[in-house]
Amino acid sequence: MATKRELAALRKAKATKTLDKLTSLAEKVITQAEKLDNPTVEIPIRALSNVAFNKKKHIIEMGSKTQSRTLFNVNMAKRFAQTFLVAKACKELLDAGKTTSIRDLYYMTKHSIGKTSENTFENQGESDPIIEDLEVTINTLREELHLFASNKGSMVGELTLVDAGDTIDARRQGSGGWAVPSIVEDDVIQFKKCDAKFVLLVEKDAVWRRLNEDKFWRKYKCIIIQSGGQPARGVRRLVRRMADELKLPLYVLVDNDPWGLYIYSVIKQGSINLAYESARMAVPKARFLGLSSYDRERYDLPDDSTIMLNNKDVARAKQMMKYPWFAERKWQRELKKMLDSKVKLEIEALSSKGITFISDEYLPRKLKEKDWLV
Amino acid sequence: MSFDPQLSLLDTTRAKVPRPQAPDNTLRSHRSKRVGSAKEDPDCSEMPAKSSQKTPKNETSSAPDNGRPTEPDITTAKPPSKKSGGKGGPRKKRSAERLAQGQRDISVSEFFVKNRHLLGFDSPARALLTTVKEAVDNALDACEEAGILPTILIEIQQTADDRYVVSLQDNGPGIVVGQVPKIFGKLLYGSKFHSLKQSRGQQGIGISAAGMYGQLTTGKPVRITSRTQPKYPAHYLEVIINTKKNAPEVIRDTEVEWDEPHGTRVEIELQGSYKSGKHSVDEYLEQTAMANPHAEIFYYPPKGRDEVVYPRLSEQLPDEPAKIQPHPYGVELGILMKMLKDSKARHITTALKEDFSRVTPKVAEEICKTAGVSLKARPTTIANREAEALFNAIQKVKIRNPTTDCIVPIGEELIRKGLEREIENASFYSVRTRAPRVYRGNPFQVEVGLAYGGQLTGLIDHGDLSDGSAWVGGVRLNPTKKVEMALTSIPGITRKKAVQLLLKAGIDRATKAGMLTADQVELLRAALDAEARSESATRSIHLVRLANRVPLQYQQSACAIHKAVTDVNWRRYHLTQPRGGLPQGPLVLVVHIASVWVPFTSESKEAIAHYEEIIDEIKRCIMDCGRELGRYLSRRDKHKAQADRRHKFDLYCGELVEALHFLTKRKRTEIKKILDTAADHYAEVGDELQE
């Protein structure tokens, strides 16, 4: 186990490496301008057009296509300058050894330009993509830039861990659980005593509360995590580390609709936008526990617990069926069944069979029958 | 503040000069110094005035209570059918003899009364304009014919609510006393009707019609003062028209003292109405001055408005247009018959040769052969029997185009000068005079001038800020008022508009005007400028139509010039243009057509007929100027784009310098220099080359 001093040294070395990258990016701009070349930043494209599904590794990987962002082009000049405003703010953070939220960064970099009423950034929606651009451009991670998103997700279960030097017993986290931080790298979080046999990730806070109240994790020796919808990087990186370091299988419980299924997909093989993070965040062996399109019949759920699919749901399901990572027959069947039945099913629908139906019957039976998809 | 294009056009170059004493003096002088007539004078104006008050309304009914035999007798206007028709009811059989009792000559004056709309007297405002117009046209023509640089004084005085005296004085050759009554008192009298020559008037119906209108509406005679040479005395005449006989009657003829060595002064009192703006006397004179840069015009408007002086721009008279014989292609059948009938030649070939231009003996022979008439036939015989065959033959025979030296254009230089006088600060001018062309055997020539942008965009002199108060739009905002209220003191700014401007400028509307910062005042000015710019960009252009140096003001959309302008694709020249309409933008477009015979659509001479050859030629001429305008605008747009680019680069480079300095630790000045050089380079290159 690394000492505190060693951890600090590790952090410092990481910071220096990132700083070098930022500096050379800036130097390049000056050199180009000196030669009357149009200063250019090559940014890997974060879109469907530049991702590929690696069938072997079972993850979505980013391709090699880049877009050029040039300074002397009226349509790009602003974003070019913004890129370096973010770089500058990151250097300030790295120099001071502080981390901050991306919202904070927005305020650090936002000011009016010259005497105009124009701002460097009009809203956070403008600065967030620039941060991601910078990450991929200099091939660094968000946390290496000392940035984090707001905490999202919480956890309880049979695990003891150290978070920024404080020991946390995940068995004693009350009804709210331990909030999963945005940065969960090993210089911040270290796992200690683990009695869990598996990890269960649920999409919804309400369902997680039910399971926590029923002490499902104690009975079945597991860790339960709620992601609050599409999981943030912190949760994704954490479950990946548990899978890698603690060798715990990961089960995912989501709504039976295209969006729920896609949450599972992101956990399993990564997302299009953050394809460059797949390699260290995806959990290809994650198990899709439910809700399956077939659960309605198998668990005899009443018809009035269902909701009609709307146009958006149908369009999204059809779009997903075309993704290479949904090409396998089992997923096509799931989606087809959903479209044919014309209804979706929320996890809460299980409560129509009784408040503790989920912890007493549904989950135990699923696990017992090994009724999951991978 | 001038959102109105007409107003801005008018206001720009008007030199405000003290009213010279001359016209006032002369006006008084011939009254007071008139030999032996000073005291009798009032009677002729006052008495009939009362009785004639009603006449305009019941011109066509009888007015037996008119006191004087010399009064316009409008009983003749009574429809003749009344006499023969008897009382209403079922129709009765009537013999030709009985009908003949009701048939008789219709006097020209009667025709006038019934058709005054054709002659331009259909409304009081238009009557005033037409009167000025006819008088000015006559004066200019007279001066030019006599080889004198015209100096013209126009004065309009209001004598009652709806009554005006139009006085026009020129420095022309004057009129021989014996001719005065005919010129001013007989319709259709003149020298121009019988020849083909480029001139302003064409039918000789003008000034006498104005006189008749005045007489019909006020009962006043036309008053003329004229002197032909310094050594002869000036004559003062009062002429009325005997409407029954279409004959003038002189009711007064006296010698008077007059300051002018030669010239003519005409005074007509008429029922009218004075207004400014579109279709106004003001506008007409402004355009007349533009079309006649060799004339000097003094204008004294009514209602206490400021005098306007249009100084002479050219000391040279336009060349005298040559008289030409009609070309066979331009002659209509009826005219052809009349010409043959009047011919003194013995043989048809000689008649053709002598009375028409471009008819050589060979051509004359060919025409006759084609028509199948004897070469030796008498013209009068042909006129009666074979005129139509001859007419058709003319169309088939190839005849050379007429000479074009009979047309005198204004010329590119003077059109430009005239435009520049009216619109001092346009950002672009273009003028073009094309070579003469021919339609139907009539030579004509087209000229175009245009002025674009600058003051036409309505940019405003906001006023001087040095006294520390907020000057916006030429108005000092009342510092104690809320700015939204203070702004309404700018002409043309309503409360609503003021609120919009403040919103645009990002200023709280409740701010006291006195509390505005210098930056805020700048923002307000910019907002007002932007407003004016966008307003002028969506306004139709101002089209000035001139025919033989005479402005055409009415019936714009019926005119061949309007048709040509709307037919041109102005989008090609970077202007917006609604489908089938006039283009939009801060543009004044002057189109002049000079011809020995301008084909007007009606006698009021307000619109040119749609002859294909004429429209095509106007279009070509407009396009010549349009292309130049297009080039200018695209150059300007490019410069603007370049400046915009540079501005944008500057903004973001400023941000970038700070970031790069922080990241690389290199000096700010060093980085700034490098970026500035590169920015200059790329601002010039433009985005398109980077793609």
Low-confidence stretches of chain A: none
Low-confidence stretches of chain B: 1-86
Total number of distinct structural domains of chain A? 2
What's the SSE pattern of chain A?
HEEEEHEHHEEEEEEEHHEHEHHEHEHHEH
CATH topology of the largest domain in chain A: Dna Topoisomerase Vi A Subunit, Chain: A, domain 2
The overall pLDDT of chain A, averaged over residues, is 90
Strands in their spatial order, largest beta sheet of chain B: 5-4-3-6-2-1-7-8
The percentage helix of chain A is 40-55%
Supply the CATH architecture of the domain at 21-37 and 114-291 in chain B: 2-Layer Sandwich
Query: What's the N-to-C terminus distance of chain A?
Result: 34 Å
Give the overall form of chain B: globular
Largest sheet of chain A, in brief, is: 6 strands, mixed
Strand arrangement, largest sheet of chain A? 10-7-13-12-14-15
Give structural notes:
The complex is a heterodimer of chains A (374) and B (691). Chain A is an alpha/beta fold. Chain A folds into two domains: 4-148, Winged helix-like DNA-binding domain superfamily/Winged helix DNA-binding domain (Arc Repressor Mutant, subunit A); 154-368, 3-Layer(aba) Sandwich (Dna Topoisomerase Vi A Subunit, Chain: A, domain 2), CATH 3.40.1360.10. Chain A contains 13 helices and 17 strands. In chain A, the strands form six sheets. Chain A has a six-stranded mixed β-sheet, with helices on both faces. A three-stranded antiparallel β-sheet of chain A has the order 9-8-11, with no helix packed on it. In chain A, helix 2 (77-96) crosses helix 3 (102-109), helix 2 packs across helix 4 and helix 11 (311-321) runs antiparallel to helix 12 (329-341). Chain A is globular, with a radius of gyration of 23 Å. With 691 residues, chain B is an alpha+beta fold. Among the domains of chain B are: 21-37 and 114-291, Heat Shock Protein 90 (2-Layer Sandwich), CATH 3.30.565.10; 328-396, Orthogonal Bundle (Helicase, Ruva Protein, domain 3); 460-536, Orthogonal Bundle (Helicase, Ruva Protein, domain 3), CATH 1.10.8.50; 638-685. In chain B, helix 11 packs antiparallel against helix 17 (412-422), helix 13 (348-355) packs across helix 14 (361-371) and helix 19 crosses helix 20. The model of chain B is unreliable at 1-86 (pLDDT under 50). The A-B interface holds A 22-23, 25-27, 29-30, 33-34, 36, 38-39, 70-75, 77-78, 80-81, 84-85, 87-88, 91-92, 113-114, 116-118, 120 and B 506, 644-645, 648-656, 658-660, 662-664, 666, 671, 674-675, 677-679, 681-683, 687, 690.
